[in-house]
Amino acid sequence: MTTQQLIDQIRLKKSFLCIGLDVDLTKIPQHLLELEDPIFEFNKAIIDATNDLCVSYKPNTAFYEAYGIKGWQSLQKTINYINEKYPEIFTIADAKRGDIGNTSTMYAKAFLDDLNFDSVTVAPYMGKDSVEPFLAFQNKHAIMLALTSNEGAFDFQTKNVDGKELYKVVIETSKTWKNSENLMYVVGATKAEYFTEIRKIIPNSFLLVPGVGAQGGSLQEVCKYGMSENVGLLINSSRGIIYASNGIDFAEKAREEAMKMQKEMDVILKR
Amino acid sequence: MTTQQLIDQIRLKKSFLCIGLDVDLTKIPQHLLELEDPIFEFNKAIIDATNDLCVSYKPNTAFYEAYGIKGWQSLQKTINYINEKYPEIFTIADAKRGDIGNTSTMYAKAFLDDLNFDSVTVAPYMGKDSVEPFLAFQNKHAIMLALTSNEGAFDFQTKNVDGKELYKVVIETSKTWKNSENLMYVVGATKAEYFTEIRKIIPNSFLLVPGVGAQGGSLQEVCKYGMSENVGLLINSSRGIIYASNGIDFAEKAREEAMKMQKEMDVILKR
């Protein structure tokens, strides 16, 4: 999917919501456990109930790897289901990969080509040749960790590198990489004031924003400081939506929560 | 496996060699492709031919993920085979994972518990709470990226953070984390002179050293600057050993290459 197609979807749906499909078997409705593939059935129900309210789904690969081969089958079925039934959805493999060049190429092929995700999240620590392989696919994107939403973000990301925080150096440096127009960035919602600084470096790039909801970030604050002319934001919510209920009505309740966010986004987009 | 057991194995085998099982179907002997699981058959032959010459095997997960579900089956069969037949081997899942706490916990469980690897490689960018979940398993280890062997290492890892290179800040900070005695570090062989600096911070920690061989690093140089009293080094070689031949004799040739390295290591250990 091109960036323009993503922007068009945001305008059409009046939503820049991304729903994180972080499926934990201990948290999903227990009646699903009788089915052959409870994770896929859960995802399918959530997707069918919310696809008109969001523009993106983001399965976190850890939650699938944790169930071994069965987990990978669920991931594969989930991405295939989205691609076939809802091709207008921007899909994100939240994998946070990154390795030496030939190895990153294998990861990129696995997620962007074989599984056919629109994008994959990557870690910047190993630098240019660990990220560029993810940028080599037409109309596909790498979403690089810049400033994350967890406590540990302050261990290194905000450290002072020659007078500037590391996350800024990471973003600035990445702009010089080949096919950098295919880069998006992870910026946590728990630090809304940082968005002003980030927008000075990348005025128009898309930012994937975790941390709204369960982790305590504010949608209003993020949009105030982080929204660009072309919106430029994908706000992720996982637990707050998918675990809204663990009863028979889980999909319906997930829809209600997604709709609350979509309505708030609609108001913000009209401003 | 405890660190002491690893040291005992090194003394017993007179080797601190780690063999990287980075299996690419386009590079393995073509007669294996007729078998049901070529990747596992390749690994099995390499392992049977080299296990007395090395102390560790390190499958890089990218090479398995690239083949989807079949790849994960090969990975599972490989680790099970090593654990059952050669329990004295120190196993490393080279996965370079790292995410917010609850997600890192899922990854840690997948690799250290379910797949039962002795260790897993992790990325430091997200800080303390992204790494600590990997340190919570008794007699298991997290091997954290410090200074990698690729060109991109100079993009951020060697940047000056308040008068000190980032990789040093990363190592120093990690020493304060819970169960930090379970930490080992990835340090590339292509920068042997850096080992002196690193040993000032962590005199005894184990270092996993890629970059000897195909990437151009020197075993002699690494040992000169990096060896500790308890050896403290695992030297990885992947392509130079496993792809020594792509004919019927591939396992035999791999053994020859592994033996060359083991003999060189034996001489170094006797000094």
From TrEMBL, chains A, B:
SUPFAM superfamilies for the chain: Ribulose-phoshate binding barrel (SSF51366)
Record gene name: pyrF
GO biological process: 'de novo' pyrimidine nucleobase biosynthetic process; 'de novo' UMP biosynthetic process
Catalytic activity: orotidine 5'-phosphate + H(+) = UMP + CO2
Ranges for domain Orotidine 5'-phosphate decarboxylase: 16-254
Enzyme Commission code: 4.1.1.23
Protein name: Orotidine 5'-phosphate decarboxylase
UniProt cross-references to PANTHER family, sorted A to Z: OROTIDINE 5'-PHOSPHATE DECARBOXYLASE
Family recorded in the similarity comment: Belongs to the OMP decarboxylase family. Type 2 subfamily.
Annotated InterPro entries: Aldolase_TIM (IPR013785), OMPdecase_type-2 (IPR011995), OMPdeCOase_dom (IPR001754), RibuloseP-bd_barrel (IPR011060)
Organism: Flavobacterium aquatile LMG 4008 = ATCC 11947
MF-aspect GO terms: orotidine-5'-phosphate decarboxylase activity
Domain of life, per lineage: Bacteria
Pfam families reported in the protein's UniProt record: OMPdecase
UniProt KW keywords: Decarboxylase, Lyase, Pyrimidine biosynthesis
Record-annotated active site: 96
UniProt keyword annotation of GTP-binding present: no
Pathway the protein acts in: Pyrimidine metabolism; UMP biosynthesis via de novo pathway; UMP from orotate: step 2/2
